[in-house]
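Worked example

This section walks through a single chain of length 223. The input is the sequence exactly as stored; nothing has been trimmed or padded.
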Amino acid sequence: MSDLRITEAFLYMDYLRMSECIQISFAVCRIGIYTCFRALCCKGPPPARPEYDLVCIGLTGSGKTSLLSKLCSESPNSVVSTTGFSIKAVPFQNAILNVKELGGADNIRKYWSRYYQGSQGVIFVLDSASSEDDLETARNELHSALQHPQLCTLPFLILANHQDKPAARSVQEVKKYFELEPLARGKRWILQPCSLDDMDALKDSFSQLINLLEEKDHEAVRM
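Given that input, the structure is written out below as C-alpha coordinates.
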Protein backbone atom coordinates (compact mmCIF):
# COMPACT_ATOMS: atom_id res chain seq x y z
CA MET A 1 0.00 0.00 0.00
CA SER A 2 1.41 3.40 -1.00
CA ASP A 3 1.98 6.20 1.46
CA LEU A 4 -0.81 8.17 -0.23
CA ARG A 5 -3.36 5.41 0.36
CA ILE A 6 -2.25 5.02 4.00
CA THR A 7 -2.69 8.75 4.54
CA GLU A 8 -6.13 8.62 2.94
CA ALA A 9 -7.13 5.73 5.21
CA PHE A 10 -6.07 7.60 8.35
CA LEU A 11 -7.90 10.74 7.18
CA TYR A 12 -11.03 8.69 6.56
CA MET A 13 -10.83 7.17 10.06
CA ASP A 14 -10.40 10.66 11.56
CA TYR A 15 -13.46 11.76 9.59
CA LEU A 16 -15.52 8.88 10.98
CA ARG A 17 -14.45 9.63 14.55
CA MET A 18 -15.27 13.33 14.09
CA SER A 19 -18.70 12.47 12.65
CA GLU A 20 -19.39 10.16 15.57
CA CYS A 21 -18.41 12.89 18.08
CA ILE A 22 -20.66 15.40 16.32
CA GLN A 23 -23.60 12.97 16.38
CA ILE A 24 -23.06 12.29 20.10
CA SER A 25 -22.90 16.05 20.78
CA PHE A 26 -26.17 16.62 18.92
CA ALA A 27 -27.81 13.78 20.84
CA VAL A 28 -26.68 15.24 24.18
CA CYS A 29 -27.98 18.67 23.16
CA ARG A 30 -31.37 17.21 22.18
CA ILE A 31 -31.63 15.44 25.53
CA GLY A 32 -30.72 18.66 27.35
CA ILE A 33 -33.26 20.72 25.41
CA TYR A 34 -35.99 18.10 26.03
CA THR A 35 -35.20 18.03 29.76
CA CYS A 36 -35.33 21.82 30.01
CA PHE A 37 -38.58 21.90 28.04
CA ARG A 38 -40.21 19.38 30.39
CA ALA A 39 -38.96 21.26 33.45
CA LEU A 40 -40.35 24.57 32.20
CA CYS A 41 -43.51 23.59 30.35
CA CYS A 42 -44.55 20.17 31.57
CA LYS A 43 -44.09 20.54 35.29
CA GLY A 44 -46.41 18.19 37.16
CA PRO A 45 -48.51 19.11 40.18
CA PRO A 46 -46.64 19.64 43.47
CA PRO A 47 -46.67 16.73 45.92
CA ALA A 48 -49.74 16.65 48.13
CA ARG A 49 -49.33 18.12 51.60
CA PRO A 50 -50.03 15.75 54.48
CA GLU A 51 -53.27 16.34 56.35
CA TYR A 52 -53.75 15.95 60.09
CA ASP A 53 -57.01 15.81 62.04
CA LEU A 54 -56.84 17.85 65.25
CA VAL A 55 -59.25 18.68 68.04
CA CYS A 56 -59.22 22.20 69.50
CA ILE A 57 -60.59 22.69 73.02
CA GLY A 58 -60.69 25.44 75.64
CA LEU A 59 -63.17 27.44 77.67
CA THR A 60 -65.57 29.92 76.12
CA GLY A 61 -63.78 33.23 75.66
CA SER A 62 -60.30 31.72 75.39
CA GLY A 63 -60.10 32.87 71.77
CA LYS A 64 -60.14 29.55 69.88
CA THR A 65 -62.41 30.74 67.08
CA SER A 66 -60.61 34.06 66.59
CA LEU A 67 -57.18 32.42 66.36
CA LEU A 68 -58.30 29.79 63.86
CA SER A 69 -60.20 32.35 61.78
CA LYS A 70 -57.15 34.59 61.64
CA LEU A 71 -54.98 31.65 60.51
CA CYS A 72 -57.53 31.01 57.74
CA SER A 73 -57.42 34.71 56.74
CA GLU A 74 -61.11 35.15 57.49
CA SER A 75 -62.61 38.52 58.27
CA PRO A 76 -62.74 39.28 62.00
CA ASN A 77 -66.25 40.63 61.48
CA SER A 78 -67.50 37.13 60.65
CA VAL A 79 -66.19 35.51 63.86
CA VAL A 80 -68.95 33.99 65.99
CA SER A 81 -68.26 32.05 69.18
CA THR A 82 -68.63 28.31 68.62
CA THR A 83 -71.61 26.86 70.49
CA GLY A 84 -71.36 23.23 69.32
CA PHE A 85 -68.46 22.41 67.08
CA SER A 86 -67.01 23.60 63.80
CA ILE A 87 -64.34 22.31 61.42
CA LYS A 88 -61.76 24.43 59.65
CA ALA A 89 -59.04 23.41 57.19
CA VAL A 90 -56.04 25.51 58.24
CA PRO A 91 -53.42 25.56 55.46
CA PHE A 92 -49.68 25.72 56.07
CA GLN A 93 -46.80 25.42 53.63
CA ASN A 94 -45.95 21.85 54.62
CA ALA A 95 -49.30 20.51 55.91
CA ILE A 96 -53.04 21.05 56.16
CA LEU A 97 -54.59 20.90 59.61
CA ASN A 98 -58.24 19.86 59.75
CA VAL A 99 -59.18 21.37 63.07
CA LYS A 100 -62.36 20.35 64.87
CA GLU A 101 -63.10 23.16 67.32
CA LEU A 102 -65.37 22.29 70.23
CA GLY A 103 -67.43 24.89 72.10
CA GLY A 104 -66.24 25.65 75.61
CA ALA A 105 -69.49 26.40 77.46
CA ASP A 106 -70.29 24.53 80.68
CA ASN A 107 -73.10 22.50 79.09
CA ILE A 108 -70.89 21.44 76.14
CA ARG A 109 -67.59 20.50 77.79
CA LYS A 110 -69.05 17.30 79.25
CA TYR A 111 -69.52 16.09 75.65
CA TRP A 112 -65.98 16.87 74.46
CA SER A 113 -64.81 13.28 74.71
CA ARG A 114 -67.39 12.19 72.15
CA TYR A 115 -65.45 14.10 69.51
CA TYR A 116 -61.94 12.91 70.37
CA GLN A 117 -61.95 9.78 68.22
CA GLY A 118 -59.73 9.98 65.15
CA SER A 119 -57.73 12.95 66.42
CA GLN A 120 -54.00 13.02 65.67
CA GLY A 121 -53.19 16.02 67.83
CA VAL A 122 -54.70 18.45 70.33
CA ILE A 123 -54.81 22.24 70.54
CA PHE A 124 -55.73 23.61 73.96
CA VAL A 125 -56.35 27.37 74.14
CA LEU A 126 -56.49 29.15 77.49
CA ASP A 127 -57.10 32.77 78.39
CA SER A 128 -53.95 33.83 80.23
CA ALA A 129 -55.70 36.98 81.47
CA SER A 130 -58.80 35.23 82.85
CA SER A 131 -60.04 35.15 86.44
CA GLU A 132 -58.63 32.70 88.97
CA ASP A 133 -61.83 30.66 88.84
CA ASP A 134 -61.73 30.34 85.04
CA LEU A 135 -58.04 29.52 85.13
CA GLU A 136 -58.70 26.77 87.66
CA THR A 137 -61.44 25.36 85.40
CA ALA A 138 -59.12 25.49 82.41
CA ARG A 139 -56.45 23.65 84.37
CA ASN A 140 -58.86 20.88 85.31
CA GLU A 141 -60.01 20.51 81.70
CA LEU A 142 -56.43 20.36 80.41
CA HIS A 143 -55.47 17.77 83.03
CA SER A 144 -58.49 15.69 82.00
CA ALA A 145 -57.54 15.93 78.31
CA LEU A 146 -53.88 15.05 78.92
CA GLN A 147 -54.94 11.90 80.72
CA HIS A 148 -57.80 10.85 78.42
CA PRO A 149 -57.13 7.44 76.78
CA GLN A 150 -57.81 8.78 73.28
CA LEU A 151 -55.57 11.85 73.69
CA CYS A 152 -52.81 10.96 76.14
CA THR A 153 -50.36 9.76 73.47
CA LEU A 154 -51.01 12.63 71.04
CA PRO A 155 -48.98 15.83 70.52
CA PHE A 156 -50.41 18.82 72.43
CA LEU A 157 -50.13 22.49 71.51
CA ILE A 158 -51.11 24.60 74.54
CA LEU A 159 -51.65 28.27 73.69
CA ALA A 160 -51.58 30.88 76.45
CA ASN A 161 -53.73 33.39 74.58
CA HIS A 162 -54.42 37.10 75.16
CA GLN A 163 -50.82 37.93 75.96
CA ASP A 164 -51.54 41.46 74.75
CA LYS A 165 -53.76 42.11 77.81
CA PRO A 166 -52.27 43.77 80.93
CA ALA A 167 -53.46 40.98 83.23
CA ALA A 168 -51.94 38.21 81.12
CA ARG A 169 -49.86 35.63 82.97
CA SER A 170 -46.49 34.70 81.55
CA VAL A 171 -45.74 31.28 80.08
CA GLN A 172 -43.69 30.40 83.14
CA GLU A 173 -46.59 31.32 85.44
CA VAL A 174 -48.98 29.22 83.36
CA LYS A 175 -46.60 26.27 83.31
CA LYS A 176 -46.23 26.37 87.07
CA TYR A 177 -49.92 26.91 87.81
CA PHE A 178 -51.03 24.15 85.42
CA GLU A 179 -48.35 21.79 86.79
CA LEU A 180 -47.36 20.85 83.27
CA GLU A 181 -43.87 19.57 84.00
CA PRO A 182 -44.93 16.67 86.26
CA LEU A 183 -48.25 16.00 84.54
CA ALA A 184 -47.05 16.00 80.94
CA ARG A 185 -43.65 14.38 81.52
CA GLY A 186 -42.92 11.94 78.72
CA LYS A 187 -45.61 13.41 76.48
CA ARG A 188 -45.22 15.52 73.34
CA TRP A 189 -46.38 19.01 74.24
CA ILE A 190 -45.60 22.65 73.50
CA LEU A 191 -46.65 25.66 75.59
CA GLN A 192 -46.54 28.94 73.71
CA PRO A 193 -47.73 32.52 74.35
CA CYS A 194 -49.94 34.02 71.67
CA SER A 195 -52.25 36.85 70.70
CA LEU A 196 -54.00 38.05 67.58
CA ASP A 197 -51.45 40.86 67.35
CA ASP A 198 -48.53 38.47 66.77
CA MET A 199 -49.42 36.12 63.93
CA ASP A 200 -45.78 35.23 63.23
CA ALA A 201 -45.44 33.75 66.72
CA LEU A 202 -48.76 31.92 66.33
CA LYS A 203 -47.73 30.40 63.01
CA ASP A 204 -44.41 29.38 64.51
CA SER A 205 -46.27 27.58 67.31
CA PHE A 206 -48.29 25.62 64.76
CA SER A 207 -45.12 24.83 62.80
CA GLN A 208 -43.70 23.26 65.95
CA LEU A 209 -46.89 21.23 66.34
CA ILE A 210 -46.60 20.03 62.73
CA ASN A 211 -43.05 18.90 63.47
CA LEU A 212 -44.34 16.83 66.38
CA LEU A 213 -47.05 15.33 64.18
CA GLU A 214 -44.48 14.42 61.52
CA GLU A 215 -42.21 12.84 64.14
CA LYS A 216 -45.09 10.72 65.38
CA ASP A 217 -45.84 9.67 61.79
CA HIS A 218 -42.22 8.63 61.24
CA GLU A 219 -42.19 6.62 64.45
CA ALA A 220 -45.35 4.80 63.36
CA VAL A 221 -43.71 3.92 60.01
CA ARG A 222 -40.59 2.55 61.73
CA MET A 223 -42.76 0.37 63.96
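What to look for: The chain has a mean pLDDT of 83.
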